[in-house]
């Protein structure tokens, strides 16, 4: 009976050790949306003029901006969101 207890505890220790070794250390992949900001931070070719997104306030090079109703936007999404809000406003 004692030997069964011994085997059981060995198996238990083995399982715990395996579980600890198994703990994944997966590196998170870089988020692709970070690229845009990094590019402008590292001397991305621009005329030097920065515009401010009318929707979120993000500063973007003039070449990368989108214009709508004379206002600059950082992306199609923000331009569309702004235009949608404008059209639904009373
Ligand atoms: Zn924006």
UniProtKB/TrEMBL annotation:
<dbReference type="InterPro" id="IPR049708">
    <property type="entry name" value="PP0621-like"/>
</dbReference>
<feature type="region of interest" description="Disordered">
    <location>
        <begin position="24"/>
        <end position="45"/>
    </location>
</feature>
<feature type="compositionally biased region" description="Basic and acidic residues">
    <location>
        <begin position="25"/>
        <end position="44"/>
    </location>
</feature>
<protein>
    <recommendedName>
        <fullName>TRASH domain-containing protein</fullName>
    </recommendedName>
</protein>
């Amino acid at each position: 009976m004692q030997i069964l207890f011994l085997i059981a505890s060995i198996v238990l220790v083995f399982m715990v050790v395996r579980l600890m070794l198994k703990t994944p250390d997966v590196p998170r992949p870089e988020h692709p949306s970070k690229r845009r900001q990094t590019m402008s931070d590292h001397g991305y070719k621009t005329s030097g003029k920065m515009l401010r997104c009318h929707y979120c306030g993000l500063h973007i090079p003039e070449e990368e901006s989108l214009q709508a109703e004379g206002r600059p936007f950082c992306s199609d999404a923000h331009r569309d969101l702004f235009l949608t809000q404008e059209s639904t406003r009373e």
